[in-house]
Amino acid sequence: MTQQRTGIVSRSLDTIERVGNKLPHPITLFFIFAMMVIIFSAIFSAMDIRVEDPLNEGEILTVKNLLSAEGIQYMFTSAVDNFTGFAPLGTVLVTMLGIGIAERSGLISTLLRGLATSVPKQLLTATLVFAGIMSSMAADAGYVVLTPLGAVLFAALGRHPLAGLAAAFAGVSAGYSANLLLTSLDPLLGSLTQQAAATYDPVYAETMNYAMNYYFMVVSVFVLTLVGTYVTDKIVEPRLGTYQGGIQQEEVEKLKPAEKKGLIGAGIAFVLTCALLALLIVPEWGPMRGPEGEIINSPFFTSLVPIILIIFLIPGLVYGIITKSIKTDKDVADQMSDTMATMGAYIVLAFAAGQFVAYFNETNMGIILAIKGAEFIESTGFTGIPLILTFMVVVAFINLFIGSASAKWAIMAPIFVPMMMHLGYSPELTQAAYRIADSTTNIITPLMPYFAIVIAFAQKYDKKVGIGTLIATMLPYAIAFSIIWVIMLIIWLLLGIDLDPGSPLYYTR
């Protein structure tokens, strides 16, 4: 029966893989989308499609033709500004400067290894899932550090190594959006959400902050840890059975004295850094408070990008100095430069996506499509929780073909954020629903960049592991995470709890 299920999954994924492999590179996709906006702007302009401006009663919005003389001038004169003004570009590059030091100095990998090797055996599964979820603070480091480590730890205890690999992979990938800290994903998606909201209500967009889903994602960490632990211990490991691979139990490399000293130093630096930052906002006289001492929508919240940079940079520097991975300022510069060198593909993607987003906004097609779509949905009576669930299903399906969270959101945010605002749902809620659907299906798509790497890790213990085997192992996590996370969001909606200070569930003009 298991073989039949695996065969069905394998055939389904083979189809998805074939279709997905025929898609152009995301960079090419955005250039294609930009060209489509140009062509459709001319068509829709000729059709005289128009709607009433929701912010200015009595005014009419029409589609601007980018193939007109004025439109052609706009495309040429705005190309550079469209690139440099692409909201996620600066936020990602700045945060990665700090995260790059923490990662390349060795702090992140040592922290993950120390966390996973210092807990009681009975808490190992929960620790792996928790560490996997938290690893998103170091971008994609969890895939290459924690996933193989999970297999090694389980093998060292005589448990099935693939169960340990699966637990870590589920935390790292399916729980990618959740974290106790703000990560580079928050400003990355938040900037796109804010940019999309501004096309519908610029005033409301100015009140938004990048921590718009923080409360919800903090609670999600503990909920997903419990779910991932249960699925591993009660479903995945029993299904895998007793390991017969012949690999001897492995010893996990314990932390060296220098690494322990480095972690202690980094921990002290982290506490002191947070304390100094707290002085900027906790006291009533704090310079990072807003007018009249307000905290919500204060300069603190609008400065989260450099704050994330500092929080990762200083502990990373301290760790590197103590462990000798950083000896001079040249090492710091080199590590930052190496990090930026890996961002080349993202910078090119930002140029292409910047043109698409700018064209979409300039033509008014985004706001018109949002209003027309919202009116259609309203006419069918399809609103509320069913609407949100349908949106999440669409996101999950698209994630099977386009793995990048930012690439998908750059395409979807200009359409769905204004549409949901028109129906009375906040951009913050739309982004939370997106993050859930995007995360939970990462582990079941072979087009996710690290999927092949995880298979390679698994083949160390079982040469027969392929796409079907891995997907069959990870499917219970995807289903369980999706169901529990959706239920959690529905409870959040029914109780009317804000997603974060100043981040409501519903939108009102």
From TrEMBL:
GO molecular function term, any single one: secondary active p-aminobenzoyl-glutamate transmembrane transporter activity
One Pfam family hit: ABG_transport
Bilayer-crossing regions: 27-47, 83-102, 122-155, 212-231, 263-283, 303-322, 343-361, 381-402, 409-427, 439-458, 470-495
Look up the record and give one Gene Ontology term from the biological process aspect.
p-aminobenzoyl-glutamate transmembrane transport
Alphabetized, the UniProt keywords read:
Membrane, Transmembrane, Transmembrane helix
User: InterPro entries from the entry?
Assistant: AbgT
What protein is this chain from?
AbgT family transporter
Species assigned in the record: Caldalkalibacillus thermarum (strain TA2.A1)
